[in-house]
């Protein structure tokens, strides 16, 4: 009986270890694929960072690195400023120093953080109305932001 309990505990521990070390998309099953994918991802991040540096002015890029967000003035709402985070997350909208909204727009496929910054910048500056229409909205509360019920799409 004791051996059965020890064997069950050992099996449980092995199962937990297997689940904790399991990599997504069968990476451990195909180590060669993992190396290529990891290398490709690193190259994609480097290209995205170079493109972001080229797209922003030196002052904007420096402020993005220092503050952790890029500020973009709204064209539709004169007092609004979008704060696009350096790393993927919600874009906060401020009116002066007061948070007005948090917006969530993300790509279907994983993209580097720098590409996400570029995506938000181009969408906000290119077609702010569509950006606001497609974004999931969150309103400020005392405890952070809470989701706003989506509007009915017509």
The main β sheet shows up as: 6 strands, antiparallel
Name the beta content range.
15-25%
Distinct helical segment count:
5
Coarse structural class: alpha+beta
Radius of gyration: 22 Å
Number of strands: 6
**What's the overall geometry?**
elongated
Poorly predicted segments = 25-35
* Whole-number count of domains: 1
Helix content: 40-55%
Distance between the termini: 66 Å
User: What sequence of helices (H) and strands (E) makes up the elements?
Assistant: HHHEEEEHHEE
Oligomer state of the chains in this structure: single chain
SSE layout and pairing:
Layout: H1 2-21, H2 31-55, H3 58-67, E1 69-73, E2 80-85, E3 91-95, E4 98-104, H4 113-126, H5 128-134, E5 136-141, E6 144-147
Antiparallel strand pairs: 1-2, 2-3, 3-4, 4-5, 5-6
Helix pairs in contact: 2-4, 4-5
Describe the structure.
This protein is α+β, with helices and mostly antiparallel strands and 154 residues long. The chain is 49% helix and 21% strand. The chain has one domain (26-141). It has helices at 2-21, 31-55, 58-67, 113-126, 128-134, and strands at 69-73, 80-85, 91-95, 98-104, 136-141, 144-147. The protein has a 6-stranded antiparallel β-sheet with strand order 1-2-3-4-5-6. A hairpin with a 2-residue loop joins strand 5 and strand 6 (144-147). The longest helix is centred in the first third of the chain and has 25 residues, at 31-55. It is elongated, with a radius of gyration of 22 Å.
